[in-house]
Design a protein that fits this description.
22% strand, 4 helices, two-stranded antiparallel ribbon, globular, 9 strands
Length: 198
């Protein structure tokens, strides 16, 4: 969803996670593809997540124009596949000189390669942009790092218990936070809940 806020004055963009068969298929397309920005020639992103974003990008920017959001701060939130899409939107919004007040990418998978992550962090500067992870959720560990070089782009807020509201502020790929778990310890139960809410 996209809309105007009254208090505080601003606009919001919220991108939902996986929904329906096409979205589910795009979730499984983990190959890297070139990110189409002159400013980031060696940047690559996860094809399925990026194609999902491209299918809604123009509509998002048209809605922001309709709500006269270019001179207002943006408040951004996305979940799962929507959080990865939000990383690409954040890049585009900053390139178009929007002001991002806050961004929370909930349970985001890794959106691209190291070059994409570094360029996005450079563009963000001092904006308040985080990815939020919950305990032993599997999704933030996908696609796996390693040979193809998938990495997270944002620092992490990590909820370190299944129930409750205690969290840690962490680095980008921090072994003291969600990175502490082995693959067999991860689950999907923690993907859709925070602070005893689902």
């Amino acid at each position: 969803g996209i809309g105007r806020l009254i208090e505080p004055d601003g606009c919001f963009v919220a991108i939902r996670g996986t929904f329906g068969p096409i979205s589910s298929l795009l979730d499984a397309v983990f190959r890297l593809m070139d990110f189409e920005h002159d400013l980031c020639p060696s940047c690559q992103v996860v094809a399925g997540f990026y194609l999902a974003y491209l299918s809604i990008r123009d509509q998002i920017f048209h809605a922001l124009a309709d709500f006269q959001c270019h001179q207002r701060p943006l408040y951004l939130v996305g979940h799962s596949q929507g959080a990865a899409s939000l990383s690409y939107f954040l890049f585009d919004a900053l390139m178009r000189k929007y002001t991002v007040q806050h961004m929370y990418a909930l349970e985001s998978p890794r959106p691209g390669n190291k070059n994409f992550a570094e360029k996005l962090r450079e563009l963000i500067g001092t904006a308040d942009a985080w990815r939020v992870t919950h305990y032993q959720d599997l999704v933030p560990h996908l696609p796996p790092p390693g040979i193809l070089g998938y990495v997270h782009a944002l620092p992490e807020i990590y909820y370190d218990t299944r129930n409750g509201t205690h969290y840690l502020e962490c680095g980008v790929e921090d072994k003291n936070c969600s990175g502490r778990w082995w693959a067999w310890q991860l689950n999907t139960v923690d993907h859709d809940s925070f602070a005893d809410l689902s």
